[in-house]
Amino acid sequence: MNLNEVCAAVRPADPALRRRALDKWNAVAKPLGSLGLLEDAVTQICAVTGTTAPSIARRAVAVFCADNGVVAEGVTQTGSEVTAIVAGNLCTHETSVCKMAAVARCDVVPVDMGMNTAVDDPRIWNRRIAAGTKNFAVEPAMTRDEAVRAVEAGVAVAQELCARGYGLLATGEMGIGNTTTSSAVASVLLGRPVEEMTGPGAGLSRDGVRHKAQVIRDAIALHRPDPDDVLDVLSKVGGFDICGMAGLCLGAALCRVPCVLDGFISTLSALCAVRLCPAAADCLIASHVSAEPAGMLLLDALGKKPVITAGMRLGEGTGAVALMPLLDMALAVFHEMATFDDIHVEAYQPL
Description:
alpha/beta, 14 helices, 6 strands
């Protein structure tokens, strides 16, 4: 399916299942709504999957890896060679998200969307669009066709994971310079000053953040991306990893499988997906609010509330994976807890 066909085929979550899930929650022998956003997440999962007995036992975080030409402008503390090094470590399970995912019983799927140097390991999915994007300080990051192909590649990743039986997907990323591309895209799509969108990323000084913001500001002025055209914005100042994660969100919605978002870059990708296809929002669950400056602004734009507020900003999908054990706990209550009728106690009433 091409991108237009995917967007046309996505349907909103089932409101009748949402109501049935809420009724089931209200019958559980505990105070109404007392698990807060965890109850909302379970209700959302039921509505997306079309059942009040959903299973998320098989789950995967897809970590989209890509390099960004704008690194040449000195906007990062480390060089682009680190992207391939960390991607290789994802394959051998030696990264933060791998260690957390092992605890959360989540498979880690590294995806090469366009690193400068390909990793020679069969465990990384090859979806390369090009060997990194161009330096958007001097030319568009990619062509529009490349942006479309990158989003469609993310859709295909989601479809393949769902075909393999995964009932819960999550977005992750790895790419030196991708907080710069994300800040640029966020500034355009939200219509907010670059300074509000730009943070230290993996560890810039105050002067480094100012320089990073200036590079972004100059690039936006140079390319004049159209805020009403997501693909135009992505092609001019985006990254292949952002496109891939946007596609994963769309693919999850197409397959009616819930998708847990990670932090700033993942949430920005989700906003791109929802701007392309508003119905995709129903499958998206916000794991946490990033410590990056635009973290909460992006969640507000999506109408999502973060379950976790822990000051995290590591990326790789770590925040998304951190939510999974909490979802398991909430589903245990939802599926296994006695009802008010079971214990012969009058049910709480909404007041």
